[in-house]
Fold these 2 entries.
Entry 1:
Amino acid sequence: MDTFIKELKLEEIPDGPWKQVAEQIGVENLYTVLRIVGGGTTYIPKAETLIRPVRNRHIREEFNGCNYLELAKKYNVTDRIVRVICGPGYPEGQINLFDEDEDTFS
């Protein structure tokens, strides 16, 4: 069967999402993907999922401690998402005025 793939032409693939994938990555690469995941139920995540770590890194690098709304607008996310990505609210290296240790004033 693997020898037939060399003869398969793009126009022989039925119209639909798999033909679109073949147009982008080539017929032989599509065949390889289908050999790996074909026949089963496979969740295919959105493309954004793949690049999310890079987006999050950019957000953390640009975070200055108070620009949640600006970053949210720039990266098309909510300010809550920016807060989750960036953490407590002060840039790396900045000290917190309020020590979180309970024994501070005892």
Entry 2:
Amino acid sequence: MANAVPSSHTPRPHGVTFAQSVGFGLGDFYGGGQTTLTATYLSLFWTRFCGLDIQTAQGIIGGCTALSALFALFFGALSDNLYRFSVGRRFGRRRLLLLVMSPSLLIGIVLWIPGLHPGVYCMAYVVWMMLFQIFMTAYNALPGEMTTDFRGRTLLSTTRLYISNAASTAIPLIGSAVLTALGEHTASSYQIFAMSFTVLFALAMFVCWRTTWELTPEEAGFAEFADGTRTNGHVGFAGWMRRVRVLLRDYASTLRIRAFRQHLAIYLLLMCGMDVFGQTFAYFVIFDWGQSAAFASLLLTLTVLALPLMPACNWLLARFGPRTVYAVGFCGMGAGAVMMIAAWLLRGVLTGAAWTAFATASAVLFFAFRTSAGFTPWQIFPLIADVDRIVTERSRSATFAGVQAFFRQLCSGAAAMIAGAALALTGFDATRATQPFSAQIGLACSTAGIYLTAVCLGWFVARGFGLDRRTDGELLAETERLSAGGAKKDVDPHVRRTVEELTGVPYDRVWPDARE
């Protein structure tokens, strides 16, 4: 698809009310909730009730996740260019995708039906992950389009994270209650809460669609399509090939933005670690700690700690910037991961209430500090498009969302398959009541060891991250000056350094249409 035509229209300022932020945030009831639901219970359900071994289950999850990365690129380009078509101009280029998703999410019910062929689970999970890519592409672009105000964007992102964490807490809490009441050795116990939440995801997506808005075609650079002076016309095979080449160059160009490369590295380390942790934590608790699946679910409800801690994280982010927030979060998460491994090694040394208190403390520490580290990327992402706009003169939020989702799914899929293969090599078998010591080591490494490695690498990258509220404000002001006809030679030296540090592009090459 060809590039958008830069528009002379400046996005109108929009205020965001709390009710509107809640409507937007309900979208992440699905985003955060489905991740918790599938990561925590799906592999466990498949290996216990559907006849799949750990390598097959993780292979389906990882392979389909990696395959869905290709969908991320397609949907990113589609969303950015839907205003070229009448259906996009009528229903929106972002919100149309959310509307389509609402009923489509019910396909997730198939994942929780025992006795099906592995190929059916595979196809259903491909569709499930494809829908998640549609969501990530459209949803992540909305905060940057709903308002240009930093406080408004922060309200949207914070509310979104509150609701996401509420879903991530409610699912294991309700799961623990259901498994305790009905027993964790029957498939219906898992089906009751899994299918119920799938229906709630579809309803939440509908509410999100009803309560959000986005840039108009004129504001997004598609004025010529909106007024009918330009149409798509017949393209042909050669034209499509040309568009594919342009599209691939467009995606590749996102990686020249230095702030995005840094953000992407931190985000991938956190998300991949979180995905593998979620997929193996229940196994770790059952077989390394010798506890029940209900106890694992109960510990996962400690994500509720994120709710009271988010205002503090928000204050830290505004006061000290993302580098400090990342450093605090990474140190606390690393300490929690070390304590989880120690709790496994101390079984039999600490007994009864002392061991339970120590194990619970490790989870409290881990989930409390995961709040600050996991909170920050979502506050930073809406600012990435501001950095890009001063270079390209375009609004490419969905393109960046597509690239981010592509790498996230590709890396997470690979990590899931590697974790499954590694556990199989250690002799892990989910149908056994106990595991050999080699399998216990594999579970400890997959659950806590991978996260410990990720936070160390993430801390190293975050030390050089410079995008924050102050530098974003400088970028926006300079973009406004250049778009109003300001000359590059009149730039303030400090602003010039800020632009070059964040973009990774020499100042003379930004905003090509500006006067020298």
